[in-house]
Each structure stands twice: as structure tokens, then as C-alpha cells.
Amino acid sequence: MESVLAEWLPALQIAPQRLHEAMRYAVLGGGKRVRPLLAFAAGEVAGAAIERVQHAAAAAELIHAYSLVHDDMPAMDDDALRRGKPTVHVEFDEATALLVGDALQSLAFDILAAQPLADDAAAQLKMVQLLAQAAGSRGMAGGQAIDLASVGKPLDLAELEFMHIHKTGALIRASVLLGAQCGALPDATAAALDRYAKCIGLAFQVVDDVLDAETPTATLGKTAGKDAANNKPTYVSLLGVTRARELALELRADACTALAPLGARAERLRQLADFVVERTF
Ligand code: GRG
User: Fold this and answer.
1) Whose C-alpha lies nearest to ligand 1, atom 7?
2) How far is the CA of 264 from the centre of ligand 1 (A)?
3) What distance in Å separates the CA atoms of residue 119 and residue 259, rounded to the nearest whole number?
4) Mind listing the pLDDT tens digit for each residue in 69-85?
């Protein structure tokens, strides 16, 4: 994934150099690459060629990287640390950070359109639409809007879930489905992966809330304790750490139940479910 991303990102010597430097800074040399890993694992389920999946995975990761750059900006979460390094607007400047996000999003769709990823053009067009909807106002950007509007407000569990299904879950779901759509995907398999992805997306967020509350900044590579400091509703503020951890385990179990009909070829997806729940950063 690292080399595919490095290859797709414009080289440092290409103008405008500062923007390209900042794009590479935002994407390379950090991050768990959970979304690409999910795409590769789902591709395995669908017997997809890795030469296809790597591009779909890169597109998903670029959307994720863009969202982090914008989320860290003063108008949103206003954070100075990401992946153990100064955030893009701190290392460069705000205007550059804005453009980095814009350009990474465009590059993601460029990649999806440039490479033959599905057996026919109509199927590939659906993949482009899948990512567009996951990133847009009825997906990640919409979730972010709800998040920004909910600071200091008492959300209930259903409202919190609705927000995270959009903010974090939509792109995680798209990563799984894009990887799988690079191969053969019968309806029943697609439905199983969809169910898995929804559970994992939510589990990812529950664990994120627990880590924010419990893990030091040095381990996280981003500022810890921000949710409480910003008076944000989280799974920890609503349920407490113990119940939030239990919920993450329940969601993992649901995710693995969804995979049961897929047998051994879904093993990597099971391992990723473990990783999502057991991760420490
Ligand atoms: C700006 C449109 C727009 C959206 C931003 C995803 C997001 C929406 C903001 C990120 C803020 C945040 C901390 C969300 C919680 C879950 C999450 C996405 C954490 C970061 O993802 P990781 O842990 O990061 O996969 P790495 O660095 O490992 O890639």
C-alpha cells in the first residue's frame, strides 16, 4: 500500500511543489492503513486480483487522509498532532491544508476512474458512485456535520450511532465493498460483507472513544482526551469505559457471525475484526 500510494501521489519536484510536498506529508509515513487492509481482505473473499484491489484501497485511504487533514484544521477539531507529527496546517499553513484535502479527494476519484477495476465499465462506475456517496453529505461529510453540531449536546445512543455510521462507518463500509467489487461478488456475499462492515465500522469508533479516554497522547500519535475536553458525546461518556469495551466485543462477535457463511476465505477479515477491537492506538 505504501508504494502504491507513493506512486500515485504527485512527485515532489512537480509544480506546485509545496502542495505536492504537503500531500505526500499528509498521506505517507504513518497511519494504520485499516481501510486498505479491509479492502485487501474483502478482495480476497471475492477472489479479486491484487493489481485491482491496490488501487481501490489507495482511493479509500486518500479519502481518509483528506478527512483527517480537514478535521484537524482550526475550523473543525483544531488539532496540532496527527500520526505523531504536526498536523498539515501546522507544518505548512491553513490554505495549503485545505488544498491538500481537496486535491487528495480528487486524486482518489482519478485513481478509481483511471484503472480497470471491474469486469465492465458499468460495474466500475458503480464503484465510483459508492465512494462518492460514502464520502459525501449522506456519508462521511454528513457525519462530520452532525459531529460538529453535537458538541455540548446530550445525544442519546441512537443519535450517537447515527452520527458514527456516517462519519466513520461509511468509508469503512466503502473500503470493504470496493475491495470485494474488484472481484466476483454474489449478492449473498455482498450482504454478508455489508453486515460485517457496518459492525466493524461501529466497533472502530467505540474503540476510538475508549482510546481517546484512556491512552496517552504519545501512544496515540494524536492528542488524547479531546472528546471530554470538548464536551463531545461519546460511547465512553454515554456508557462508561467498561460497557463501551463490552459493546466493541459484541460488535466484533456480530461482525464474525456475518462472516460465518464465507468460511476460510474470510479469515483475514476476522483477523482485522480482532485488530480493530484490540488495537492500542
Ligand atoms: C472533514 C469531511 C471531513 C470528515 C472528517 C473521519 C473524520 C471525518 C474525522 C476524523 C476524526 C476522528 C478522530 C474520527 C474518529 C475515527 C477515526 C476516523 C479515527 C482516525 O482513523 P484511524 O485511526 O487513523 O484509522 P490512522 O492515522 O491510523 O489512519
Assistant:
1) 67
2) 30
3) 25
4) 999 999 999 999 999 99
